[in-house]
Amino acid sequence: MGVAVKTDMETVVLGTNPVGLPIYFDRNAHQADGIVLINRVKPHTDFRGTHESGVLKMLVIGLGKREGASQVHKLGLRE
Q1: Which of 12, 24, 63, 64 is least enclosed, having the fewest CB within 10 Å?
Q2: Residue 62 CB coordination number (10 Å)
Q3: Chain CA centroid to CA 50, Å
């Protein structure tokens, strides 16, 4: 497609969530003109719940990088 692929672990903080934790977002994606997420839904490998995989996971863990994943995993699972 003729587009660059930029990848690193740098993030920016967009704000905080309702519990006061920072919301991390990929720095390169934040600087982009647009973002397209392509999703596939599949069962999670480690747990079963209402929401196991999908767009929200991609936003929080994928675009949040290591810091975003760490914040979500601090909260644990709610069933």
Answers
A1: 12
A2: 14
A3: 18
Tell me the two tokens of residue 41: 């839904």
pTM of the predicted model as reported, rounded to 2 decimal places: 0.72
Amino acid in position 43: P
From start to end of 1-79, where are the E strands? 11-16, 22-26
Q: Is the pLDDT of residue 79 over 60?
A: no
C-alpha dihedral over 40, 45, 48, 54, to 10 degrees?
Answer: -20
Cβ within 8 Å of residue 28, ≥6 positions away: 6, 7, 8, 10
- Report the alpha-carbon distance of residue 45 to residue 1 in Å, rounded: 32
Query: Using CA atoms in the order 34, 22, 50, 42, what is the torsion angle rounded to 10 degrees?
Result: 50
